[in-house]
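hey so i finally got around to running both of the ones u sent me last week. sorry it took forever, my laptop kept dying halfway thru and i had to restart like 3 times lol. anyway pasting them below in the order u listed, first the sequence line then the structure token line for each. didnt double check formatting much so if smth looks off just lmk and ill redo it

first one:
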Amino acid sequence: MAATLEELEKRLSELERKVVSLQQRLEGRPVEETPAERGARLRREARAGQAALSAGVAKAFAEMGISGEPIGAEKVQELIAAYGFRPEDNEFSRGIIEMREE
């Protein structure tokens, strides 16, 4: 079975992580990396994990019955106003503040 580029990137990132961990154990000190190396490593790890993250979010949304495209903040504010909530009343903020003070 041929591995996809995404799978290979994921495997490479994991291998790199293990090599760094082994180096740290053998030398008894952390392996230093430059900011550029750290940034490149973090980008590789993010790309490698993106598919799993996207799948997890899609599964969670499906389990919660969330579907469709996002509607945006302005539309949400319109919907809230349609139910009689006035922004100037700050009901949500007050509730959070009251819970913090308990």
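and the second one:
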Amino acid sequence: MSPRIESGDVLLVVDIQNDFCPAGALGIAEGDAIIPLINRWIESAISRGAHVIASRDWHPSHHISFKERGGPWPPHCVQGTKGAEFHADLRLPANAVIVSKATHPDRDSYSAFGETTLNDELQRDGVRRLWIAGLALDYCVKETAIDARNLGYEVHVIADATRAVNAQPGDGDRALQHMRNAGVFIEQGLGLVPLATSLNQG
């Protein structure tokens, strides 16, 4: 049986922003379909005394990752724009810590640990275990999970609460294997019914 989120853990919700959801500037297929499951995980985290942290891309205009500067992506998640906002259906608690990443115009970072205060926040609270969900599996989720492992955290990625940005067959599977190789636990099949059951078990 897989472990469940407990007091002292952190649920890290990665980049559930409008631009990464369908119809966004860098829309991911079914990117919004994972939000109900993430909301249930947020409920579970709160009920069990775990912390909730949300990361977001928070790019300045003309960020180095944009195609206009030779990067691979269209402009997305520009600071202060609608596309950079969290999706309206995401139910973050009022006390959720928000971590903004890739904020320097000339440096990119997929990881929520890259030039942010995230590790400091976790160390301050004595956190040892992370549960990660969000977008996108093959970029920001993967890089965040691997960085977390390299920093010594126990890391669980909730596979059914994430989606890959690339439509290439196998990209998501390769990302999962890359994370497994780094020592990340990949949690499969933790849908609404199993999670609701665990909530009712106290």
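quick thing i noticed on the 2nd:
The CA atoms of residues 73 and 147 lie 22 Å apart.
anyway thats it, ttyl
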